[in-house]
Specification:
About 10% of the residues lie in helices and about 30% in strands. With about 90 residues, the chain is mainly beta.
Length: about 90
């Protein structure tokens, strides 16, 4: 019987790694995104925990008018960074 062992790497990126001006690269397609604004989706709801998303401006080989300005939930950005699909390019790595 074979034994499967999965090794999970420690998360490298966290919320403090993201700020206005952070440059992110999509390693699959080469596009670059600039984080421009962090917004709490539930800001006007008193009893709701915050859900943060980032406004992002993209440029690169697969960017066009339909995907240049795309918001992303902060947890999704961190997931893509920690999975290795995206990387921070401007020295603010965690």
């Amino acid at each position: 019987m074979a034994l499967l062992i999965t090794v999970m790497s420690k998360k490298k990126y966290n919320h403090s790694c993201l700020s206005v001006g952070t440059l992110i690269k999509d390693k699959d397609c080469g596009d670059l995104a600039l984080l421009t604004k962090r917004v709490n989706l539930f800001e006007k709801l008193d009893e709701q925990e915050p859900v943060w998303f980032w406004e992002m401006v993209w440029t690169g080989p697969t960017t066009n008018s339909s995907n240049r300005n795309v918001p992303f939930v902060e947890e999704a950005i961190l997931g893509l960074l920690n999975s290795g699909d995206w990387e921070i390019k401007n020295g603010t790595e965690g």
